[in-house]
Amino acid sequence: MTDPALSAINRTLRRLPNAAYRQREYLTEAEVDRHIEAARKRGRNGPRDAAAILLAYRHGLRAQELCSLRWAQVDLRHGRLHVNRAKGGIESVHPLHGPELRALRPLQGKSPYVFTTEAGTPVTTAWFLRMLQRTGKAAKLPFAVHPHMLRHACGYKLANDGHDTRNLAHYLGHRNLQSTARYTALAPDRFAKFWRD
């Protein structure tokens, strides 16, 4: 027979569904811009933090993928980023555009890693979470931010821009199109012609 007190403790340790913590699982483009600007203004590591947010958003990077990003994956001269996906995702090569190139160039140093601490060691996923939470508060976002919200923001932005599901799946490294369908399902533009007033 199970002890009721122990059972009550175990119930309190369970994590609630995401909806109990926030109303949605992604950031809008304007919220990402506010977040990047807030990061840029915060302390001596502002340029690094802003670049990390920009790359995670623009390339749909998971926290682990961002923190393990190496300069060997970045081709600043030709504007390319080799994305190694975690969780069995499909690798791909993404174009790097002006904002990303401008954000990355000043970060070049002696470390093989793109994002490093002041001691020169690679940043961690725990660092990325804490940094996003701090900058989210500084940006006065109305909810707590977590790293995966930037990946979702990327998916929703590209789906709203009309990119097809298969290309979006390849961009995000999804092996299964069902993982990508969540972004197109919430794209409001697909309903734009339903009512003509």
List the helices and strands and how they pair.
Layout: H1 4-13, H2 29-40, H3 46-59, H4 63-67, E1 74-75, E2 80-83, E3 92-95, H5 98-104, H6 125-138, H7 148-160, H8 165-172, H9 177-185
Antiparallel strand pairs: 1-2, 2-3
Question: Can you offer a commentary on this structure?
Answer:
There is one protein chain. α2 runs antiparallel to α3, α3 (46-59) crosses α7 (148-160) and α8 (165-172) crosses α9. Strands 1-2-3 form a three-stranded antiparallel beta sheet, with no helix packed on it. It has nine helices and three strands. It is mainly alpha-helical. The protein starts with a helix and ends in a 12-residue tail after the last helix.
Distinctive features:
single chain, 197 residues, mainly alpha, hpI Integrase, Chain A, 9 helices
